[in-house]
Structures are given as structure tokens and as C-alpha cells.
Amino acid sequence: MNYSMQFGPLWPSIRVSLLSERKYGALINNFSQVDRVVRDLEGLCATDFIYAAQNGWLDSPAEQAGGEGPAPLSPNIKCYTFSKGDISRFSPARPDTVGTLGYYLMDAASLLPVLALNVQPGHLVLDLCAAPGGKTLALLQTGCCRHLTANDISASRIKRLHQILHSYLPRTVRNNVLVSVWDGRDWEQVEKDTFDRVLVDVPCTTDRHSVMEDDNNLFTRVRTKERKQLPVLQMQLLVAGILAVKPGGEVVYSTCSLSQLQNEYVVESAINVAETQFGIGVHVEDLSCFRRLFQDTFSFYAECRVGELVLPHLTANFGPMYFCKLCRVQ
Ligand SMILES: C[S@@+](CC[C@H](N)C(=O)[O-])C[C@H]1O[C@@H](n2cnc3c(N)ncnc32)[C@H](O)[C@@H]1O
Known about the structure:
By secondary structure, this protein is an alpha/beta fold. The chain has helices spanning 2-7, 11-18, 34-43, 49-59, 61-64, 111-116, 134-141, 155-168, 171-174, 207-212, 224-228, 230-244, 264-278, 288-293, and strands at residues 25-28, 47-48, 79-81, 103-106, 123-127, 145-152, 177-181, 195-201, 245-255, 282-284, 299-301, 308-311, 321-328. The chain has a domain at 109-328: Rossmann fold, CATH 3.40.50.150.
């Protein structure tokens, strides 16, 4: 009922997509035998949607006429998807001769917050709610993190993150990663004004999971209180991310929910709290270029007040994924 009011005539299409099989992307592991992995995926007629979008952008008449420059994206991330309308599936990755997995299957829309973070060589990066680790793995594929801190409050979920790091990364890369188990809301007690980039991928109603799975469902009666308190927790985590970033640094907030209450409202109230309680100025970066850049792969919602939202669609059944980028004023 809530979403039918929020999305009006778009809701029936979003609803049926949430109830249908989702699509995956194959994030290439740059620390594996990439040529072989890419050859295999191209043999399935999958394409790297990030490379295709960037090349299409450079070839576009607007760009050639001296229009906007390319969107600032975290580099070196490659993700293969099947084209819009193609519902083929990827098989799970197999270990290569040294036991490393060639790709990681994930919702391709989950890469958009990582791309938006625009990690550059030498950056200190914090992933505040990191487990099970899909986005951490993507951040490390950039090859840019001088050091990455991957934090999560859940020790059991952190175990899964350790497994992913071991299955995909050489020791030299893992040595630059600090894994911590801490309540992200209290990060200020660990360090503040430190990081160049902070990813705040918060716990949310995980809408796709919630409509399909009874197990651990946040909409069960016993979890009502926890669910109602989610926006406050999300706001506190985002404020912690803003405090952790250096002046001039950038924070990306993301959820896999369609809810305005967990998306735009959280961003707006965190900006307000950062300013009024901590005297920290923050501005919202315009990410509408993502909508144009990746329109061939995802279905975007055009009406967000701040940030961008990928809507599930039967021809491109990724998401939901909301992401918004904040820059801490110098
Ligand atoms: C959406 S998931 C993160 C997914 C992860 N970024 C990925 O890409 O695999 C949200 C995570 O937030 C964690 N979390 C919940 N409350 C937290 C808190 N107060 N501090 C830090 N992490 C928290 C949960 O344990 C969960 O692993």
C-alpha cells in the first residue's frame, strides 16, 4: 500500500519484477586469470556494462560537441551482464589453477554506489557496514585503496566477508585491509576526519528479500520495533560516515530499499544533523549523469529529490538500489 502511493502507476510493474527472478552481474576478479574469465563470459554473449557505457558516452554526439565530461567513476571495475530482456543466468565461478575465483555474482546495481564513490589512487577508504563483502570486494578491484577498513557490527557476517577476501584476493591485497567488528554509529570513538572515501551501505528493509523469503523477514510481527527504528539507525550510521571522512572527502549512502523514508529522508536528516549538531557542511552531488550513462542496463526512477534509485523492471531485473553521494565541505 505504501509503495503504491509512493510510485503510483509504476508500482504494478515494480511489484511484479520484485516477485520475479532477479538478474545478476559477474564482477570480474582482477586478481585472477582475467583473459580466460573474460573470454568465457564473452562466449556467453555477456558484456561489460561499465566499459560499454563509458565507450558509448565518449562516442555520443553531446560529448563530441564538448558537452559534460565523463562521470567521475571508481576505475578498473568490470562487470559482465546479459543485455536488457535477456534472462540468461551465469554459472557459479570455478577456481582457477591457483584456487582463485574469476568472478563474483552480485546484483549489478550494487556496483553503482561503489562506482559513485570515485575512489582514486592512494585513497584511504572506510566501508562502514561491509558484510558480507560484495562492495568491499568491488572497492578492492579498483586497485586504488592505499588502505581499506571493512567494518560490520555482526561477527557472523564478518566471517563471510573473510571467506570472500580469501577466495578472491592475494595476500598482498588482503594485507591492506583491516577488518573490524564495531557498532558503526560509534566510529567517531575510533577515528574521525580520516578517510578520503566512506561507503555507508546501511541495513534496510531489503525489499526484494522481504517479498520472497520468510526466513529472517523484517516484516514479521516480532521485528516491528526494529523495522520502525531503521531510519534512525540509518541516519546515525550516515552521520558517523560524515564524521569519519576528511574535509573535502566523499561519502556514498546506499540501501536496497525503495522506501523514501529510508532513502531521501535519511539523507536529508543526516545533512541537517551534521550541520546543526557538528557544524559540518555537506553538499549533495548530482548523480543524474549515472541515469544517462547506465540507461541501457538499468531502469532508473527519475523522481528522487536527492540521489538515484534503480527500479526493478522485468527487462532489467536489478535493484532496488538507492545511492546518494555527499561531499564534506573543506
Ligand atoms: C546491506 S548490508 C551490507 C552489505 C555489504 N555492504 C555488501 O555489499 O555485501 C548492511 C550491514 O550492516 C550491518 N549493520 C547493522 N547495524 C550496524 C551498525 N550499527 N554498525 C555497523 N554495521 C551494522 C549488518 O550487519 C549488515 O551486514
